[in-house]
Amino acid sequence: LVFFSSLSEDKVWTTVYHDLQMQTSVGGNSLEKLSVLQLNYSATMDQISAITSSAEYCEQFISYSCKMSRLLNTPEGNPYTWWVGKANEKHYYWGGSGPGIQKCACGIERNCTDPKYYCNCDADYKQWRKDTGMLSYKEHLPVSQVVVGDVDRPGSEAKISVGPVRCQGDRNYWNAASFVTSSSYLHFSTFQGETSADISFYFKTSASDGVFLENLGNTDFIKLELKSATEVSFSFDVGNGPVEIIVRSPNQLNDDQWHRVNAERNVKQASLQVDQLPLEVRKAPTEGHTRLELYSQLYVGAAGGQRGFLGCIRSLRMNGVTLDLEERAKVTPGVKPGCSGHCTSYGMYCANGGKCVEKYNGYSCDCSKTAYDGPFCIKDVGAFFEEGMWLRYNFRSPGTSIKDLVSRTLLSSTDPEITAPDLNLNKEELSFSFSTTKSPCVLLYISSYTQDFMAVLVKPSGNLQIRYSLGGTKEPYNIDVDHRNMANGQPHTINITRNGRDIVLQLDHYPPTSYSLPTASDIQFNSPKALFLGKVIEIGKIDQDIYKYNTPGFTGCLSRVQFNQIAPLKAALRPTNASSHVHIQGELVESNCGASPLTIPPMSAATDPWHLDSASADFPYNGQAIGDGVNRNSAIIGGVIAVVIFTILCTLVFLIRYMFRHKGTYHTNEAKGAESAESADAAIMNNDPNFTETIDESKKEWLI
Question: Membrane-spanning residues where (predicted)?
Answer without folding.
Answer: 635-656
